[in-house]
Amino acid sequence: MNLEHLNALKKLLSSPKKIAIIPHKNPDGDAIGSTLALWHYLSNNGHSATIVAPNDFPKFLKWMPGAQQILNFERENSQSKTVINEADIVFTLDFNHLGRVGQMSEILESAQATFVMVDHHQEPSDYASIMYSDVSMSSTCEMVYVLINQLGDENSINPDMANCIYTGIMTDTGSFKFAATTSNTHRVVADLMDKGAEGTEIHHRIYDTNSPSRLHLLGCALKNMVILNEYATAYITLSQEELDKYNYQKGDTEGFVNYGLTLDGIKFAVIFIENKEEGIFKISFRSVGDFSVNDFARKHFNGGGHTNAAGGRSEDNIADTIAKFTALLPLYKNQLQS
User: Fold this and answer.
1) Could you list the residue range(s) of the whole structural domain that residue 315 is in?
2) How far is CA 154 from CA 148, 151, 212, in A?
3) Distance between CA atoms of 327 and 116, rounded to whole angstroms?
4) Is 138 exposed, middle or buried (0-12, 13-18, 19+ CB in 10 A)?
5) What is the 3-state secondary structure (H, E, C) of 212-229?
């Protein structure tokens, strides 16, 4: 965070405030980890802080310290609106456009609070008065760690906060293997372990606890994989019928898209997942090297994210969505084969 915004935030937090902390819709490990870490920090410093999530989050994240205190906007609508309307400060974490919160966007747009953005995605919008935006960071959790240090409170990180921050860094870096993992990321993780983060236990809770139905769904996804060697591309489709068949629970498809990148010669992997209730196909894009899925998602599928990891959506049916996607690939053939 630059000095001007850091000083403004210090002044803002110099007396007790009512604070709402907001992750994006369908929050992942980085969104939940960063909001919980910040919630612990602010609560321990005398503020009245509440996390309001746009909707539910995966069961494998609900062990995190403080997770049971998170309000679900869909289920606890009235209480959530009150928290936002009465807030002096609204922190938005792990997203940089209010469209990422779904039905919550309207109430956030009308809120009178001072907005503070903490996020590492590309091309932030300008809704926040105080911004901490850094695309070089591995995760929003790493940014929260740095922010607490910049506020002069590095010694305030307790084991609960350390576990939350570690979780977000681990999940957003693919267990520290993605390109955004820097030497400084490892220094941060080392300090978190010194402060009480239980790395082995966290990894077990996130990655090693499967249900039979999730493994069957993974089998279905892999069976559906289409490999387009000419374009160094692999994609997976999952229909609502298939999700229902295998008793899909939120978070069950986490990481499925990455299987395509394990194939020799594949540089671009995509998964298309139907959400019949919303009438869309949710799309996850992953790449290796310098092929920007952020640019691809923004230009063609109303999405965005990072150079090597982004999301998007399609309101067409699966046949038309796949037809559009495959028709685009020749335009990128040289980039994908380089």
Assistant:
1) 212-337
2) 6, 8, 42
3) 40
4) buried
5) HHHHHHHHHHHHCCEEEH
Domain count for the chain: 2
Q: Global pTM? A: 0.90
Residue recorded with tokens 């920090």: 41
Output the CA angle 41-102-60, nearest 5 degrees: 55
Residue 232 confidence (pLDDT):
97
Token pair belonging to 255: 């990481």
Q: Nearest-CA neighbor of 194 among 164, 172, 173, 163?
A: 163
Q: Which pLDDT tens digit goes with each residue over 77-133? A: 999 999 999 999 999 999 999 999 999 999 999 999 999 999 999 889 999 999 999
> Does residue 66 sit in the same domain as residue 102?
yes
